[in-house]
Specification:
Elements lengths: L4 H8 L3 H8 L7 H14 L5 H8 L4 E7 L4 H4 L2 H15 L3 E7 L2 H14 L4 E5 L5 H10 L3 E4 L10 E4 L1 H14 L5 E5 L5 H16 L9 E3 L4 H12 L7 E4 L2 H13 L9 E5 L13 E5 L1 H17 L6 E4 L2 E4 L10 H13 L1
Parallel strand pairs: 1-2, 1-3, 3-4, 4-5, 5-11, 6-7, 6-8, 8-9, 9-10
Antiparallel strand pairs: 10-12
Helix pairs in contact: 1-2, 1-3, 6-13, 7-8, 9-10, 11-12
């Protein structure tokens, strides 16, 4: 027969109410009594019913991670799994249950959130950027339900979010290419209206301006986030009258397509054209040569998002909109070695004269 709270109270010589207060960490119980009751519970091998406790406390000790997933998501959006793992590890440290909810589209994601909030089946929500919409953000704003959106929404909102500073990522890529002696640097990325592509491009252009180098519009291409898109954009650059000596690729599939186009033209990487991309998987290490990347520690991003959510759960009035600086440069053989200080000065003079 299982041990009950009455058994614990009788064995400890206290009231059932006192045992309940100890279990639910209520004040007005002395440390000595609290320790005595816990020792009795341990000796009797008594485990409180967590669901019943949470019902009384209006708390579930559960965090839900919501994302839109489609066929081949694990390949097309492989960093999502690392974000999820980072978030899970952080919530686990704080003894929260972690639940993953997948939706086929953004409308379904909103419906899932409505159910979670209505049923109070979680204490907080981590919303992956793939599920973000104006309707979803509005729902979170209206209800005040604890949440963190992973990825800054591409519209004005008071919803809470965390994101990587993609402007800084673009700056890092541009500065390092300049250090390596490249001066005709091109940028190929996703659609012009895409937030990530737009911010990385701005960061790159800013770094070039600081070095006195101009980047003509002909060296900037927008297309699809795919191998075919990368191949076509690189083809257009290689056929132009002002061929670049290096290229910044928005993601791994785009970089793979660009490398294919470069090799098709019989050009050498990195001597004829240097290549740099973002995020260290899944393809950057598999190309020949392996690609230099501005990497983002998305596992740590997941941990930071979860940490902020746990703070939000404790303090619902907390307003969070922040960038996390998680970028690092991983240098491989797709770029020439950095030039010397004198060579950099000479490059700066040539750039200013253009």
């Amino acid at each position: 027969m299982s041990v009950t709270i009455k058994d614990v109270a009788r064995e400890a010589g206290v009231s059932i109410a006192t045992v309940s207060k100890v279990i639910n960490q209520k004040p007005a119980i002395s440390d000595a009594t609290r320790e005595h009751v816990w020792q009795v519970m341990e000796r009797l091998n008594y485990h409180p019913n967590s669901q019943a406790r949470n019902f009384v406390r209006q708390k579930t000790d559960t965090v839900v991670f919501l994302a839109v997933t489609e066929s081949h998501t694990a390949f097309d959006n492989s960093y999502m799994f690392d974000i999820l793992c980072g978030a899970q590890s952080k919530t686990s440290e704080k003894n929260y249950h972690f639940s993953f909810t997948a939706s086929p589209d953004k409308d379904q994601a909103c419906q899932e959130i409505e159910k979670i909030i209505g049923r109070k089946s979680a204490d907080g929500l981590l919303v992956h950027g793939s599920a973000t919409s104006r309707r979803l953000a509005g729902l979170l704003e209206e209800t005040g339900f604890p949440h963190i959106i992973i990825g800054r929404p591409p519209f004005s909102t008071t919803a809470c979010w965390i994101d990587v500073n993609n402007y800084v990522s673009g700056e890092i890529a541009g500065k390092y290419l300049y250090r390596c002696g490249y001066s005709r640097i091109s940028f190929i990325g996703g659609p012009a209206e895409d937030e990530i592509s737009r911010h990385r491009l701005k960061g790159f252009l800013s770094s070039m301006q600081l070095q006195g180098l101009s980047v003509p519009d002909s060296l900037i291409k927008h297309g699809s986030y795919s191998k075919n898109g990368g191949f076509q954009m690189m083809e257009d650059l290689l056929r132009s009258s002002c061929m670049p000596d290096s290229v910044i690729c928005e993601n791994n599939p785009v970089a793979l397509g660009a490398v294919s186009a470069i090799k098709k033209h019989g050009l050498s990487i990195p001597d004829d054209i240097g290549v740099i991309t973002f995020n260290d998987y899944p393809l950057s290490r598999l190309t020949e040569p392996p690609l230099t990347v501005v990497d983002i520690d998305v596992n740590e991003m997941g941990r930071q998002a979860a940490a902020l959510l746990l703070k939000k759960i404790k303090n619902p009035g907390l307003h969070i909109q922040s960038f996390a600086n998680l970028q690092s440069l991983i240098v491989r053989s797709s770029l020439r070695s950095p030039v010397t200080a004198s060579e950099t000065d000479a490059l700066s003079v040539r750039g200013s004269a253009r």
